[in-house]
């Protein structure tokens, strides 16, 4: 039975620290390898029982040791097994050397492997610890296996895939299934790694939970148990103002739809009141389209300042369809002391002067949520966006620290980061969320949670997850209007 929360993720470096701490505590490192290899063999027999041959590819390190154990277990079960080694097996050390000796199976050089119909490749070449491009020999073999359409079962992580960044290092196997140990790595969740891992099994090989928790950093999969207790729940005596008043800023008359999407999503997601703050020229079109959502004219920064002093406003969304320019900057700076979701045009308005935005929100508890997609992220954080050595998680965390804001770095593998170093990788969003207006709905949902009193990071994480659940309910072919209609149904977890 696993005793670790499923949302914990370890980087390859942290997993190495867990292995070392486990050995230092007196736990047999070979015993861990034995259990790992046996788990791989069991998965191979369970999920690929029809394979005519199990081709086990063993690398020069401990991942290869897992492969030798798996090969022995498969042979003991009566399966047809062929073992191939990378490098000189005579140079193996420690547990990997012992695993090869105990297997007593002949092996051939890796270059001798030719994919056959009916094969299952068990990839035990490198695992999660690889930090350089794969050798040409391995890249060529990966291509051969792909062309032959032979299924791959990966040990720990498909070889060639960076466990920290989720990116191929020159080339990487595309596995049908991956068996990893104790916890998943960021590379299992970040793209394109997620698509290269296939189904991921996590097997407990016996490292104590206390050791894993002691080395774990602040990266998690975005799951409800991380923020569920902070979700606002209306009580019997709750009234609309206690549930928070959310204001969403509209653009000009020909660009009002995005703000209305955000406003509707905010209302559905639980804000007690929602008002669209509209310029004068857009008042008629907004008035014709709003019922439960209120409308207030705001043309200038002076209008906004007056409104802030006379209305009970809990949180704000600025950016969807608003327009890029000085007006957006003035409005944002007027809101420096208020909970704010800054999206789209609001972000781009600061592309020439990102420090002006960051400096305005420094100090105190973070109350700014930035929701950039890839292009918008590069406008605010060009140096981070260009750094290929950083993972998406690392980029988001550094951006959050710099901006003193919760960052929602959007994409199919959205990362939510906090200035204190916490980062959640989101995985529940269906691919059809990639549609016009989806981001406007997300901004409104996060804004509603801010208005109800959730802290910025937790509001952002919850909003992203609930947005994914809303997308599932809306279904394939959904429109943003249909997505917004699902924004308040809740989640199943």
TrEMBL record:
Catalyzes the dehydration of the S-form of NAD(P)HX at the expense of ADP, which is converted to AMP. Together with NAD(P)HX epimerase, which catalyzes the epimerization of the S- and R-forms, the enzyme allows the repair of both epimers of NAD(P)HX, a damaged form of NAD(P)H that is a result of enzymatic or heat-dependent hydration. Bifunctional enzyme that catalyzes the epimerization of the S- and R-forms of NAD(P)HX and the dehydration of the S-form of NAD(P)HX at the expense of ADP, which is converted to AMP. This allows the repair of both epimers of NAD(P)HX, a damaged form of NAD(P)H that is a result of enzymatic or heat-dependent hydration. Binds 1 potassium ion per subunit. It comes from the Bacteria. Its EC number is 4.2.1.136, 5.1.99.6. This is Bifunctional NAD(P)H-hydrate repair enzyme. AMP binds at residues 410-414, 439. The keyword Cell membrane does not apply. The keyword Lyase applies. Residues 15-213 form the YjeF N-terminal domain. Pfam families: Carb_kinase, YjeF_N. Keywords: ATP-binding, Isomerase, Lyase, Metal-binding, Multifunctional enzyme, NAD, NADP, Nucleotide-binding, Potassium. Gene3D superfamilies: 3.40.1190.20, YjeF N-terminal domain. Homotetramer. The lineage of its organism: Bacteria, Pseudomonadati, Pseudomonadota, Alphaproteobacteria, Hyphomicrobiales. Residues 223-493 form the YjeF C-terminal domain. (6S)-NADPHX binds at residues 62-66, 127-133, 156, 258, 321, 373, 440. NCBIfam families: yjeF_cterm (TIGR00196), yjeF_nterm (TIGR00197). K(+) binds at residues 63, 123, 159. Its cofactor is Mg(2+); K(+). Belongs to the NnrE/AIBP family. In the N-terminal section; belongs to the NnrE/AIBP family. It catalyses: (6R)-NADHX = (6S)-NADHX; (6R)-NADPHX = (6S)-NADPHX; (6S)-NADPHX + ADP = AMP + phosphate + NADPH + H(+); (6S)-NADHX + ADP = AMP + phosphate + NADH + H(+). InterPro entries: Carbohydrate_kinase_pred_CS (IPR017953), CARKD (IPR000631), Nnr (IPR030677), Ribokinase-like (IPR029056), YjeF_N_dom (IPR004443), YjeF_N_dom_sf (IPR036652). It comes from Rhizobium puerariae.
